Every structure is written in C-alpha cells, then in structure tokens.
C-alpha cells in the first residue's frame, strides 16, 4: 500500500509540474480586432520645457546635403508641444481592427529620413525610397531591452527614385532604429505595433486615439531622448479621456 501511495504521489507531482510547464509555455493571446461598441477616446498633449533642437554636422555629400541638418529630436511648438513622441497602449488584447494595408514608407529626402518617427503594424510591408541624387541606404535595427541593437536588414538605395518594399522588416514588434551607413547623421525610429493603439504626436504635441474600449488602460509615452514614462487612464464609453503629460 505504501508503494502504491508513493507512486500516486509521484504521479501527482509530475502532473503538477506538467501543468506549470504548460502554463509557462502558453503564449499570450493574440490581438483581436472588430467593432468597438462601448468605446471612448484618449486625447491629449505632450509638452517639454527648456529644450531646443540641435543640428548635426554633415561630413559627406556636403555639396547636396549642406553643412548641417536638424537633429529633429526636439521639435517644439510655441507653447511647448513636443512633436514625434510615441503614445501607445501595450496591454490590450481586443479593440478596433488593425490596418496593415496603409502606406508605411520611410523616404531618404534632403539627407534626412521622412518621417523621423512613425508607427507601423506588425506584419505590414515596409517601404523605403531614395528621393536624393546621392547614394543612401536604410539599415534597420531592433532595439533590445538592454538598449543594444540587433540587425534586421540593410537596404541599398544607390540612386534617386529607387523604392524597395519588404515584409520581413516588420516581422517582430518593438522599436526599430533606422540609420544610413553612408550618412551617419541620419536617424529615424519606427514603433512596430501589435495593436492599433499607438500614435505619434503632431507638430503641436497632440495625439488622439479613437475607439478605445472602455476600462482602465496604461499609456506608455516614449521619446528618443527623454525616455519612457507611463500614465494610467480610465476610458468611459462615449467620452474622451484627456491626458496631458510634460517631460
């Protein structure tokens, strides 16, 4: 009897261990898009004080690029509104549909990337193009949790008018850093989103998320120089929740 009891105990321990393994191995639920019947919105303004944009020295192709280009880190409106801040909700598993058919293009134009900061959905096709009469390339890196960068893809754009579209660039979610190896002063950032609740602030520092499911959410606010902050917000059906944040 003691032998049977011991054996049953071992089987119970094994079953419990397997349950833990299965729990750990189970992936997070994928985002589901559809109609939002009880939605509200989140809008607001991101501001900063005491900051002004700098310039970067041009060391190659000066005859076309000029002697310097704007860094574009601090594009600040007259009342302190900060452009190019990413505002997003990470922990959300359902809501409005994701649009993967949009125009997600980064252009090399006047020796800078346009746009400087953008949001694109995971799984969409990323396009890069060269509008300049000089050689460029678009080198994509995935920024890791420790701030190191993992190579994703390097696309050569040897002449004006070249455009390349690649699906693999947006294969993994997270932050992409885009550089031009030929002109190391060029920089762009892309947030690859797993849901449609991610916005980039406009020239006034404003953002507006629509069709957000009612309930409690956490906004993540990211800026390339000032880092990342979080703000809790409650959305009520049919209403706009206002979030103003100052770095």
Walk me through the structure.
With 247 residues, this protein is mainly β. Helix content is 11%, strand content 47%. The protein has helices spanning 2-25, 62-65; strands at 32-33, 39-47, 55-57, 68-70, 86-89, 94-95, 105-109, 112-114, 117-121, 126-130, 136-143, 149-157, 163-166, 174-180, 183-193, 198-200, 206-213, 215-223, 227-235, 240-246. The chain is globular.
Layout of secondary structure:
Blueprint: H1 2-25, E1 32-33, E2 39-47, E3 55-57, H2 62-65, E4 68-70, E5 86-89, E6 94-95, E7 105-109, E8 112-114, E9 117-121, E10 126-130, E11 136-143, E12 149-157, E13 163-166, E14 174-180, E15 183-193, E16 198-200, E17 206-213, E18 215-223, E19 227-235, E20 240-246
Parallel strand pairs: 1-6, 2-20, 7-10, 9-15
Antiparallel strand pairs: 2-17, 3-4, 5-16, 5-18, 7-8, 10-13, 11-12, 11-14, 14-15, 18-19
Give the tags.
single chain; 247 residues; mainly beta; Immunoglobulin-like; 5-stranded mixed beta sheet; 4-stranded antiparallel beta sheet; 2 helices; 11% helix; 47% strand; disordered N terminus
Number of separate structural domains: 1
CATH-assigned fold name: Immunoglobulin-like
| Rg of Cα set | 23 Å
- Going by helix content, strand content and strand pairing, the class is mainly beta
Distance between the termini: 69 Å
